[in-house]
Amino acid sequence: MNNPIIFPKAKIWLDDGILYWKILNDDIEFVLGDTSVQIYIEAMRKLTGDQAFPLIIDARDVKGTYSIEAAKLFANSPIIKEVRLSEAFVTNSINSRLLIASYVRIFDSQTPFLIVDSLEEAITYSNEIKRTYNASN
């Protein structure tokens, strides 16, 4: 893990050609807002130097939800579109799985994605995306 950027409710880092975003929240009342998402996006830009990487979003054991504004920002940010090749969501609850599936269907149906139960599955998927991307460039 190279130089992680740590926030009260998130940790973002780049490791072995994969960008990671670990969401740290156990407050059921928490709503992730667009201000926080913008800060996280800037951290991703700082780590990637505007290069594109597969993104793993680790949402295991996360409670709460996100605002519509935050979802739109994350899906449509020009910065995110530059630095994200794909998204692999790691979750261990049906509620999170449904929330993520709704996000993808409503806000970001163009980015390749996978929803998985384990970090290992997400890493395998991300490495496949990297190989495909590198072979075509």
How are the SSEs ordered, and which strands pair?
Blueprint: E1 2-7, E2 10-15, E3 18-23, E4 31-32, H1 34-48, E5 53-58, E6 65-66, H2 68-76, H3 78-83, E7 84-90, H4 94-107, E8 113-116, H5 119-136
Parallel strand pairs: 3-5, 4-6, 5-7, 7-8
Antiparallel strand pairs: 1-2, 2-3
Helix pairs in contact: 1-2
Structure description:
The chain has 137 residues and is of the alpha/beta class. 45% of the residues lie in helices and 28% in strands. It is built from 5 helices and 8 strands. The strands form 2 sheets. It has a 6-stranded mixed sheet, sandwiched between helices. Strand 7, helix 4 (94-107) and strand 8 form a beta-alpha-beta unit. Helix 1 (34-48) packs parallel to helix 2 (68-76). It is globular, with a radius of gyration of 14 Å. It starts with a strand and ends with a helix.
What is the percentage of strand-forming residues? 25-35%
pLDDT averaged over residues: 91
The shape is: globular
Q: Which strand order do you get reading across the main beta sheet?
A: 1-2-3-5-7-8
Quaternary state reads single chain
- SS elements, strand count: 8
Main beta-sheet annotation: 6 strands, mixed
Give the helix/strand class.
alpha/beta
Unreliable runs: none
Number of helices: 5
- Give the N-terminus to C-terminus distance in angstroms: 26 Å
Helicity level: 40-55%
N-to-C SSE series? EEEEHEEHHEHEH
Radius of gyration based on Cα positions: 14 Å
Would you kindly provide a brief summary of this structure?
By secondary structure, this protein is an alpha/beta fold. It has helices at residues 34-48, 68-76, 78-83, 94-107, 119-136; strands at residues 2-7, 10-15, 18-23, 31-32, 53-58, 65-66, 84-90, 113-116.
